[in-house]
Write a structure and sequence with these properties.
The complex is a heterodimer.
Chain A lengths: L3 E4 L2 E5 L4 E7 L6 E7 L5 E8 L4 E4 L2 E6 L4 E6 L8 E9 L2 E4 L3 E6 L1
Chain B lengths: L3 E4 L2 E4 L5 E7 L5 E7 L5 E7 L4 E3 L7 E4 L7 E4 L8 E8 L10 E2 L3 E5 L1
Parallel strand pairs in B: 2-11
Antiparallel strand pairs in B: 1-3, 3-8, 4-5, 4-9, 5-6, 7-8, 9-10, 9-11
Classes of the chains: A mainly beta, B mainly beta.
């Protein structure tokens, strides 16, 4: 049974810092991994989708990497801004099921 | 121009009632989903559905049933509501292809409170 873990659970950084969020999963036989952000009381916004054959995806200041063999993904955020404050969730798909981590709550202080 | 919309945004009801949550997407996607986010913020898939296949998570009680009047809508019906059904329910959709292999677009969520 796939389990998805995100570390740390919460992170607070000053504006301008580069940061890394971690996601690990127990079953490496995944088809894809997706990173989302969730703002308080809001839905999920898809940030990046990495297919199992890919090693990374980039969008603006965001870069997500995937290492299937070790069951890990990282989300790198460059030059963080207060508007990046949100909860970041990773989700993996395999066996017709999608599993989410509990998320990392990021606070970027001005 | 909302991509995936849900109504209502908040729903407060008593135990034993039957309620529905509506979901609509205007993205032309052919696969839609329902997720439940519990108090610990874990998101769990409940159903994925397109016009060919309904996949039900086996842990979902049969009090929950998806109903799709057309490709753009997937409503969630819940019978005999229980306290443990209190959660935020999210609808999502994805483009044609192999279901969860494609990027998903989420609605804003419906916060259900059962008293």
């Amino acid at each position: 049974k796939q389990e998805v873990t995100q570390i740390p659970a919460a992170l607070s950084v000053p504006e301008g810092e580069n940061l890394v969020l971690n996601c690990s999963f127990t079953d490496s036989a995944i088809y894809n991994l997706q990173w989302f952000r969730q703002d308080p009381g809001k839905g999920l916004t898809s940030l990046l989708l990495i297919q199992s054959s890919q090693r990374e995806q980039t969008s603006g200041r965001l870069n997500a990497s995937l290492d299937k063999s070790s069951g890990r993904s990282t989300l790198y955020i460059a030059a963080s801004q207060p508007g990046d404050s949100a909860t970041y969730l990773c989700a993996v798909y395999n066996n017709n099921d999608m599993r989410f981590g509990a998320g990392t709550r990021l606070t970027v202080k001005p | 121009d909302t991509a995936v919309s849900q109504t209502p945004k908040y729903l407060v009801t008593q135990m034993g009632n039957d309620k529905s949550i509506k979901c609509e997407q205007n993205l032309g996607h052919d696969t839609m989903y329902w997720y439940k986010q519990d108090s610990k913020k874990f998101l769990k898939i409940m159903f994925s559905y397109n016009n060919k296949e309904l996949i039900i998570n086996e842990t979902v009680p049969n009090r929950f049933s998806p109903k799709s009047p057309d490709k753009a809508h997937l409503n969630l019906h819940i019978n005999s509501l229980e306290l443990g059904d209190s959660a935020v329910y999210f609808c999502a959709s994805s483009p044609p292809g192999r279901n969860l292999r494609n990027e998903q677009y989420f609605g804003p969520g419906t916060r259900l409170t059962v008293t």
